[in-house]
Each structure stands twice: as C-alpha cells, then as structure tokens.
Amino acid sequence: MELARLGYTANSAAGQVSVVAHLSRWMAREQLDAVRLVEPIVERYMAARRAAGYSNYGTAQALHPLLTFLRGVGVEPPRTVAVLTPVDALLERYRQYLIVERGLSVRTARGYVDAVRPFVTGRAGVRGLDLAGLTAGDVTAFVLAACPGLAIGSAKMLRRAMGYRLARPEKLLNQFLGYLDEAGADTVTVAHALGWARLPAGGERIWWAYRLSAVRGFARYLHTLDPATEVPPTDLLPSRACRANPYLYSDDDITALIAAAASLRTTTRQATFQTLIGLLSVTRMRVGEVITPDRGDVDLTRGLLLIRHAKFGKSRELVVHASTVDALRRYLRHRDRLDPAPSTPAVFVSTAGTRLRYCNVRSTWQRLCATPGSHRVRRSVGPGFMTYAMPSPSRPCSMPTPPGRTARPRRRCCRPTSGTSTRRRPTGISPPRPNCSPSSGSGSRTTSRTA
To answer: Residue range 160-182: average pLDDT?
Structure first.
C-alpha cells in the first residue's frame, strides 16, 4: 500500500518487495534487526548481494523507500559512536583517497571499496592487517580468482579498484570484439589475435606488441571461463622500445611555437595553447599533468599550482613565478568572458567547453611544429614568462627531420626543455645518434645518450 501511494507501478513494487525479502533473509543470517540498518550495514548487504550474483537493485538507493518508511514509523538506529575495525579504517581512508585525490564520485568510490573489501578482509589477522608482506602476486592472484563468474562491468570495476588502469586496453578490446564479430568468430584464437594486433598494416612493431598484450590479458580471463579460448604466447610479436633522442627547446623555439598557436582557428584555442605551451616551458610538468588541474587547484594569490594524479599516482605543489601567475590570470579572465558558466572545472578547456585530451594536445603540437617558419619566428611573450623556472618537459612530439638527416617514420622527440646552444663533448663511448631537431641553427641541439 505504501509503495502504491508513492506512485510505484505493480512491477516496481514487486521488485522492491523481493529486495526486502532478500534483505530479511540476509539480516536473519547475520542476526541483525531493523534498528541496525545504518549505512555501514546497508553497504555490507549490498556487497553481499552483488557477490551473490544479483545484477539489479545493487546499490543503497534500492533500500531508500524501505529506510524512509522505517524512519517514518519511528524505527531509528541507536546514536552511538561507531568503532571502526582495522579493515573499516583502511577502507575509509581508501574511500577518502578516491574522492579527494582521484576525484571519483561518491557512488563510484563506494563501488571500489565494496570490490576490494574481500581482499582487505582476507589480509586481516589476530594482530591486525598483514600488509607488510603484500606483493603484486597477491593482488594478481586475488583478481584472477575473483573475476571468473563476474559480469564484465563488475570485473572491470574490480580490476580498477585493485589498481589496474584500463583506459587504453578497454578501447582496444572493444575494437578487438568488433573485429571478431566481423570475422564471425565465436571464441578468441591466436590467429585472430595476431591478425587484429598487426593492424594497421605497416604499423610499428612496438604498437602491434602492445595491442597483442591487451588481447593476451583478456584471453587469460576468458580461458578461466571457456577452456577453448587460446591465449597468445608471450614471445609472439616480441619488441623492444627504443628511447627517442631528446631535443632541447630554446627560448626562441618556445616563442615560435607560441606564435604559431596564434594561427589556430578560434581565440579560445589560441589562448589555451599559448598559455599551455608557456606553462610547460616554465614548470617541470608533463602534458598529462598540465591538462589535469581544476580551477580549485590553482591558487593565484599565493602562486601555487596543485598537480594531482602525477607519476606513480602522487600529488605535488608547484610554486610559480609572478609573471606565470599573471599569464594564468589573463587566460582565466579570457575564458570566463567567453563562457561564464563552463561545464568542466578544468583550467584548460577545448572549444567545446570540455577538458583537453592528451591525444588532441599532441596532434595540435605536431601541427604547430610543422607550421612553416614556426622555428624561426622571434617574438616577445612578456617579461619573465619564459625565463623564470627550471627547464621543463612535456610529452614527446613529432618534429620534422632536418635536411641531410635520416630518421625512422614517426620518430618522436622527447619533451621540450628550455636549453642553450652549448653542445656536449663527444665521450668516445658511442657515436652520436641522429636527432630530430627542427634545424641546425635553431639555437639548441640534441645530446647523445649511451645505453
């Protein structure tokens, strides 16, 4: 009657009743009563429900009608201070880390915590949590044991919660599944995996090997469910990454790139990339780090810039010069004038009003490097904007090969670094390797590295 009064249809009401019945059976096994239905207990129940294989009504929101009804008839939980166990304390710190440091939503963080709870509970002993002897093999063994039987979405969430990053593999696997569908294949075979991995024809061998490694991990998981699945051998398509020669960008090169950014299509795009290139040149930031900060991470009053999710998942604060603060302030003022209510909290935005993506920044950087005369333009950018900081890198970019030099197709340069034209003396250990500097007279040169 209460559900009908609230507007639930007959089917929706039946679903709510089935959830309450399942909850009642679970509470009977756990020896709990309705008064103890507080948030930690609800989360425990939902974790148990998902672990039992239920795919519907798997979040705390499913019990909202029941909890509202119980509170309305006076069934209130006792107001006591909860004493956290070592497992709960660790998971609460993990949840705060996901929300504050990683920027995940509360709902997503709750799902991650539920996914790793069995693993953390398994490390609990009489003397507390045994984390000193934890190894990567323990994590891998848990994931391999827990994934079989889970839905694909639940398995991916578990892997992400345990520290795996699946951004690129997920995209590649979706492409591989499309390839299998077009081929009419019912299972993964080595022949299909190799045929897909070697696309596009004429691609770099290291890229083929990476594509095959994504399929290999997926095939290992499928093999636990279907023994007919073939796992590609690890020695198939062997490759070795070649470290690119670094190119040291001089102040003139950086100034030329900023001038070339003025040729981009819109004023927002021009201002975004001019400021981004300048910020890369005066801070030791990577491109993946410079596109990450939100407005709240920039303290223009104190001249501080907070970098989150840097290498190895760490965060750090950068102190920037007053001229850099002025440049950022001008850019943000320009942004706010064109879009007073942006849809993203990011500092650097695209023309669509979204956060910049690394692949788009890289492609734009390549176009700017290929702009005719981009490395010969001399133009002042403002006092101090280029000169007050340590030499700073960004991600590798493609540069044209100078006349008289040879380079492999799509040879990549190292991240730009403010440098001088001073050349290192040859050590005699190894001959100098060909570089990909824009020109022999650009004001800076590459330096040879020995293996």
So the answer is: 84
